[in-house]
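Help needed: design a sequence for this.
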């Protein structure tokens, strides 16, 4: 099963992608996580990506697409995957469609997690991320069991630099201009499934499972 997560920054894509990954045993591929890992390790890719990310802008399509195409060719992707944060532009979506066509396949579901902008701003200020393993929490909606400590690996949680309110506004603008058109793109491709992302995360997950399960 090949799944794409769509939605604004902070809509809950990562949260749902992780749950789906565990339920269906397919890898979660987060371009944001890959970029952050590269920044941490000070790689060439990390250096390229950092200045865009800090400004709330998208990393250029070519760099991003090359990265994803390589990742999808790895062995663990042969039974499917969940793309979390890719594609984010029409050219990225087209590149993905083309790459899949070569192997005679296509995306099964594009899941759009719908959340209005006002809700997003609140969510982002409460998001806490693990700098070591990438796990995410929310101070109010999904707190770790020990305050500010990652349940999964014990590292101290951080507020991501780009989750500060000024950058969040910019990211929302970029989302509306460059990413939202993908909803239409996948609607036309016949694989769009929209879910109300303002509901409790367990409810959102249940609705996604119902949809995926129904068609299995
Ligand atoms: P995205 O990957 O779309 O940027 P995340 O999954 O990281 O979003 O979620 C953003 C923040 O909102 C996190 O702090 C997360 O714990 C919290 N969150 C996710 N889903 C919900 C939900 N349904 N209700 C409330 N908070 C949520
Ligand atoms: P969020 O969880 O809030 O949706 P991500 O972790 O997915 O954020 O992405 C963080 C940043 O990484 C983005 O603001 C952007 O700069 C960069 N990025 C991630 N995925 C892509 C992509 N597909 N294309 C271009 N830039 C990307
Ligand atoms: Zn961790």
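Sure. Designed sequence:
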């Amino acid at each position: 099963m090949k799944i794409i997560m769509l939605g604004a920054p902070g809509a809950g894509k990562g949260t749902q992608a992780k749950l789906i990954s565990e339920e269906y045993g397919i890898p979660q591929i987060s371009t944001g996580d890959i970029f952050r890992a590269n920044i941490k390790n000070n790689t060439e890719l990390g250096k390229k990506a950092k200045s865009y990310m800090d400004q709330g802008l998208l990393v250029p399509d070519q760099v991003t697409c090359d990265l994803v195409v390589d990742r999808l060719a790895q062995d663990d992707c042969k039974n499917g995957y969940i793309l979390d944060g890719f594609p984010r532009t029409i050219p990225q979506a087209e590149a993905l469609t083309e790459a899949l066509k070569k192997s005679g396949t296509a995306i099964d579901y594009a899941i759009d997690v719908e959340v209005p902008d006002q809700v997003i701003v609140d969510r982002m200020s409460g998001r806490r991320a693990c700098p070591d393993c990438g796990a995410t929490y929310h101070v109010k909606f999904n707190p770790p069991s020990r305050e500010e400590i990652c349940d999964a690996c014990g590292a101290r949680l951080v507020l991501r630099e780009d989750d500060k309110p000024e950058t969040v506004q910019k990211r929302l603008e970029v989302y509306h201009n460059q990413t939202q058109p993908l909803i239409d793109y996948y609607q036309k491709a016949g694989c769009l499934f929209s879910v109300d992302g303002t509901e409790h995360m367990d409810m959102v997950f249940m609705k996604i499972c119902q949809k995926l399960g129904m068609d299995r």
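The first helix runs from residue 13 to 24.
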